[in-house]
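Hey, can you fold this one?
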Amino acid sequence: MIPESGTGLGRTARVLAAIVLGVASGCGGPAETLDERAARVHRNALVLDTHADTTPRFQDPDYDFAARHPRGEGSVDLPRAREGGLDAQFWSIYVGRLEGDGRAIREALERIDAVWELARKHPQDLVVATDVAGVRRGVAQGKLVSLMGVEGGHMIEGKLAVLRDFYRLGVRYMTLTHSFHLDWADSAGTGEPLPPGIGGLGAFGEDVVREMNRLGMMVDVSHVSDETFRDALAVSQAPVIASHSSCRAVHDHPRNLDDGMLRALAAQGGVVMINFYPGYNDPEAAPQIRAWFARHAAEFASLRETHKGNLRAMSQAMRAIAATDPVPKGSLARLLDHFDHALRVAGEDHVGLGSDFDGVASMPTGLEEVSDLPNLTRGLLERGWSEDVVRKVLGENLLRVMRQVEAVRDRLSREPAAPPSPR
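Sure. Predicted structure:
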C-alpha cells in the first residue's frame, strides 16, 4: 500500500507508474484492463470504512482477529482486511438499550478497552489513531488503523462528562441516537412505527452537539429522525457525517437520507457514508429480508433468552438457522446505485464507505466481506467515475471532514466558553 498522497514516496511511485504506463501505451503495449485499473486504484488509495460492528468479538478470549475466519463467521478479520486493501476502520462501540445506573457506560467502556487491547496484542499489525495525522502515519507504517465511534447517545446516560471521557479514550464520532428515541433526541427507528418523540433535538441534545464540536468529535446523524437531522445541522459549527446511511431516492427507508438532506449535509461540508445492508438499500431484497426475520422471530426471541450475554453461542445458533434458510442477499448493482445517486446529488466530496460489516444480517452478493472491497472500486470505475473521485470516496472525503472538525475544535478552544442551554 503506497503511503499518503502527500509524501514524496507516494508521489514518486505514482509518477513512475504513470511514466511506465505512458511508455507502454506509446509503444503499443497492452492497454490496462478494468480489473488491472481497479486493482491499481484500490491499492494506491487510502481505504477507510466508518462502521463495522466486529467489536464484541474482540472481547471473546477465544477469538483470534489475526486468523482468517471462513465466510459466514464474521466479515472482518486481519487477513481478509489485508486482502481487501482496508487501511483504516472505525469500530462501532455499541451496546443495547440499558436503562440508567451506569450499565450502558460500563459496557461501552469494555468495548473501547477491547479495541485498545486488540492493538496492544498485535502491535506489528494494528494501531489506534485519534486524528488524521495518526491515520496517515499508521497507514504509512503498513498497519491497519483502528478508530472508534459510539453508536448511540444513550451510552452517555445524559452526562456530558461521559462524552468527554469517551473522547479522552479515543472515540471520534458519536451517533446521536440508535433505533429508539432519547429524552433529548428523536430516532428514525428501523422502519417500524415509533411512538411520538420530542420533535427533534432537545436542549440537552444541543449541548451535546456543541460539546462534540468543542472536543473535536464528529457528530453522526445516521439513525436519527429527519427533525433531529435538521436540528443537528443547525446547531453544529463543524461538518456532520452520516456514518452508515444510504439514499432514500433509491430505496425509501427512514434510515436513508432524502435528496434535501444530502444537499444540506454537503452544503455544510459533511459526508454520507453509504451503508451496504440490503435491508436498507435494496428495494427487491428488503421485503425478503423482513419476511425472513418474521419467519424466525420466535426462534430469535428464545435464543436471546437462552444465550443472554453469550455472543459466540448466539452467533453460532443464528448461523445454524441461516444454514438451512439463508438470509436473502442484495445486489452490488443496487448498492452502486446509491453511490451514483449520492455522488450526483451531494457531490464528489461528500460520499464515503459505511459498510455495517458484522452488524447486519446479510450483504450484497460480491461484497459480503471486507476482502471483497476491491469489487466496489471496480464497480465505481466501471460506472464512469474518475480515479480521483473514487479515491475521495474510498477514504479522503472522511479524512477531510476529520480535519475540518479538528480545525473547529482548535478555533473554539481560543474562544470564551458558551453557557449551557436553559432547561
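The beta strands are 48-52, 88-93, 126-128, 144-151, 171-175, 218-220, 241-242, 271-274, 351-353. Let me know if you want another pass with a different chain boundary.
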